[in-house]
Amino acid sequence: QVLLVQSGAEMKKPGSSVTVSCKASGGTFSDFPITWVRQAPGQGLEYMGRIIPILGITNYAQKFQGRLTITADKSTSTIYMDLSSLTIEDTAVYYCARDRGGLHLGTYDYWGQGTLVTVSS
Amino acid sequence: SSEVTQDPAVSVALGQTVRITCQADSLRSYYASWYQQKPGQAPVLVLYGKNYRPSGIPDRFSGSNSGNTASLTITGAQAEDEADYYCNSRDSSSSQPVFGPGTKVTVL
After folding, report:
1. Which residues pair with B44 in a beta bridge?
2. Which of A38, A97, A112, B15 is geometrically suited to a Cys-Cys bond with A6, CB 3.0 to 4.6 A?
3. DSSP character for B41?
4. Is A57 an 8 Å CB contact of chain B?
């Protein structure tokens, strides 16, 4: 059973950066893409980007190009999501999710518990 | 880009059948995946591919595809099925994942 455990809630100022971690256990960590999805209060789900840990290859949604960085530490089975130049509109719950990959790329079968990031002056 | 549309809300009587649809040009080429989300919880995958259910998902959840439309059907809806349901497909031009806006299912 795959388990994704995310770091705790963050409170940030506009213009700053935030790092959210996602530690995986169970399953084979490096083989599957890990994706970040966010959900603003009362809103829907939004794809941010993903990484294939074994290769270090990333893909970012155009909306986040230039201020989103996703990295993987294979030694600790942890994925990191760094989002910079925060604005109030970045206030959201951020989720990591395992992507089944291959023919089912874009199918997220395991999810972290979510991390609330609040951006406020 | 590929716009994904879903009905904002549907209601169903307890024990009856409800179908939720997801429309996008990309669905002519890619299968959708479907997620159930209850308030304050992370999404849960309920259906993906042609019509696959992850382990633990009741068989009252089923899917179908036709042209640019993917459908999720709940046959014999239960009170615990009340939730938001999101479909996910891909942008036709970039192949990046894109979620639909979600459908709120109310079980009466």
Report:
1. B36
2. A112
3. S
4. no
